[in-house]
Structures are given as C-alpha cells and as structure tokens.
C-alpha cells in the first residue's frame, strides 16, 4: 500500500517534514496533527513514515532505522501501535470512532506510544466528528492522533483548533515534482556538473574549457532582455552560431540550460533552497517569478525537443536558432 518507508524519501513537503522531524527528534509532539493539502501530495505517506519514525527503537537523524523489530512490523503493516482508520465506503463512521475510543482506553501494546492515523478526516459525518472531538479534548496519554484531510473540504473548526495544522504543498510544487520526474532522459550527474560549472566557471570541468558557462550566461541575458521588451533576434542568431560551433559538446550546453531551468522552477515554486536555486542572481530570480512554473516548463520542453532533433541529425545551427527563439518566445 505504501512504498515510502522513510520521512527522508518524501519529496516537496519541506515545511511539514521539518516541523514533525524536529518534534519527533525532541519528543515534543503535539498530541494531534492535521495534515491538510491537495489530494495525492503525500499526506498519508508522511503520516505513516512519521509513525514509523516515532515508534522506531533505533531512530537516527530524525528518521526510522528500517531495521529494528518495530520498523519491520510497521513495514509489514502489522504494528499493533499503528492504527489506521480509513473511510468505510464514502465516510468514516461513528462505529469506527467508537472502536478507536475503546482501544485508546488501554495503554500502547509495545512501547510508550500509539499512533492513530485517520485518513480523509473530512469525510466524517457530524456525529462521528463530535465523537472524535471528545477524544481530542482529552486524549489518553501515550497516544498521538494524525488526521489527514483535503484542503478544499470543510472540517469542524473545533477539531481544527485542537490539532497542530500542517499544510501540504500547493499545486505549483507538485507541478515541479512532475517536471523533475520527467527528466530521466537527462543524465542527472551531467546536469549537476554542468550547473556547477555554470555557477563556478573556474572549476576544472570539461564545459569550462569551451566557453559553455559564458554561452549559458548569454542565454540568461537574452531572456532578461526579452522580458524588458528589447529586440533580441540578432543576439539569438549570433548566439545560435556560437552554440552550434560547440559541435559534439552541444548536448552538454543543452543539459546546462535545462539544469538552469530546473533551478528557476524550484525558485518559482517557492523551493529556492533546492538544487542550485540559491545561487541564482537577483535578475534570474525576478525572471523566474515573471515567467512562472508553467513558462519554465514550456522552455524545458523546448530544450528536450532540441536534444531530440540533434539526435536525429538535424542541422545543429538550425536547431540552436529555433531553440533560442522558442526559449525567448515559447508561445510564438
Ligand atoms: Zn527502527
């Protein structure tokens, strides 16, 4: 059911993860959490991984060890102190909350803590919600309750007020994850190296020898000029000629441009600490905010297409001309 076993494997939820990992590591958890956010962004996986971490007997680096007896039971879905309540049919029913009330009367079976995860809490009928509210008002010691709910569904304010609410990521961040998931055709090591060499031209990397960082810099300047409504056609054509002259190293240049766009996307989606996004200049950050994740995604597609055309032995200069014009005006 759940492939993700560790908190460290969950992507794109840095705020919520930071909060719960710190809380878990210091044993200062709230007694109830509400994970709220769009559907399918990892609320449930995070709740399960958080439970495994809290019950792990050898936890290190604010995460479960994956090896101890507790982790093994949890991974097989048989840990008696991890209880999951999912909607029966369309809703969580009052009987399910009553059953929860009964086991909460007893201490945890294996250790000092029991974690109950209530999935899609927004589906509770009023009577079940009121029953849960009584539990949340005075939860028996040794229990942590985690609710997950979609953010567009109403939940009793009295329930919300008794939970620490953690927001899960918005659509643009999900979009970025999808973008990154689609980059397998690019060698990620090469991307990192190309990006690194772009940020530090002094590094003794192959791309530094043939002026790739300078070419990437010219791409950046061209896009910024285009935003400022300055004519760029001549610059694009001259740049295309210089790029085409890279010959066999042209794909390295494309990887560098692609990696740069990934960093712009991280910045545009509010995850500026990822990748090399923190190394972007003020002008690049402004550019990324102006063209937004969608515009950046369009440009990433253009880079992929250029790469495909090169593989098909299209004329490199024509490929570069088209790419540079499309990078500047993707809707043209
Ligand atoms: Zn463990």
Structure in words:
By secondary structure, the protein is of the alpha/beta class. It has two domains: 7-169, 3-Layer(aba) Sandwich (Rossmann fold); 174-328, Up-down Bundle (Zinc Finger, Delta Prime, domain 3). The chain has helices spanning 14-25, 43-55, 69-75, 94-104, 126-137, 157-160, 171-181, 188-199, 206-209, 212-227, 233-244, 250-268, 282-311, 316-328; strands at 32-37, 82-85, 114-118, 143-150, 164-167. The protein has a five-stranded parallel β-sheet, with helices on both faces. Strand 3 (114-118), helix 5 and strand 4 form a beta-alpha-beta unit. The protein is elongated. The chain starts with 13 loop residues before the first helix and ends with a helix. Mean pLDDT is 84; it is low at 171-194 and 196-205.
How would you briefly describe this protein structure?
The protein is of the alpha/beta class and 332 residues long. The chain is built from 14 helices and five strands. Helix 1 runs parallel beside helix 2 (43-55), helix 10 crosses helix 13 (282-311) and helix 12 (250-268) packs across helix 13.
């Amino acid at each position: 059911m759940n492939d993700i076993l560790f908190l460290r494997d969950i992507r794109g939820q840095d705020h919520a993860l930071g909060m719960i990992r710190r809380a878990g590591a210091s044993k200062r958890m709230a007694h109830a959490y509400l994970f709220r956010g769009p559907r399918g962004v990892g609320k449930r996986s995070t709740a399960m991984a958080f439970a495994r971490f809290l019950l792990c007997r050898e936890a290190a680096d604010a995460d479960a060890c994956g090896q101890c007896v507790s982790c093994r039971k949890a991974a097989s879905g048989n840990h008696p102190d991890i209880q999951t309540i999912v909607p029966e049919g369309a809703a969580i029913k009052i009987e399910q909350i009553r059953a929860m009330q009964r086991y909460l009367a007893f201490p945890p079976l294996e250790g000092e803590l029991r974690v109950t995860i209530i999935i899609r809490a927004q589906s509770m009928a009023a009577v079940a919600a009121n029953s849960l509210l009584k539990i949340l008002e005075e939860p028996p010691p040794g229990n942590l309750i985690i609710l997950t709910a979609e953010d567009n569904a109403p939940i009793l304010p009295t329930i919300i007020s008794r939970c620490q609410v953690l927001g899960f990521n918005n659509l643009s961040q999900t979009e970025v994850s999808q973008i990154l998931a689609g980059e397998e055709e690019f060698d990620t090591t090469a991307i990192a190296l190309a990006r690194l060499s772009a940020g530090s031209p002094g590094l003794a990397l192959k791309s530094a020898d043939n002026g790739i960082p300078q070419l990437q810099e010219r791409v950046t300047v061209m896009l910024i000029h285009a935003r400022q409504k300055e004519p760029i056609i001549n610059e694009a054509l001259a740049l295309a000629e210089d790029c085409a002259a890279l010959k066999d190293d042209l794909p390295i240049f494309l990887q560098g441009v692609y990696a740069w766009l990934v960093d712009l996307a991280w910045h545009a989606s509010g995850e500026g600490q990822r990748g090399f996004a923190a190394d972007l200049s003020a002008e690049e950050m402004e550019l990324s905010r102006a063209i937004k994740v969608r515009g950046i995604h369009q440009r990433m597609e253009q880079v992929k297409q250029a790469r495909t055309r090169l593989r098909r032995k299209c004329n490199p200069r024509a490929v570069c001309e088209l790419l540079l014009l499309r990078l500047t005006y993707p809707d043209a």
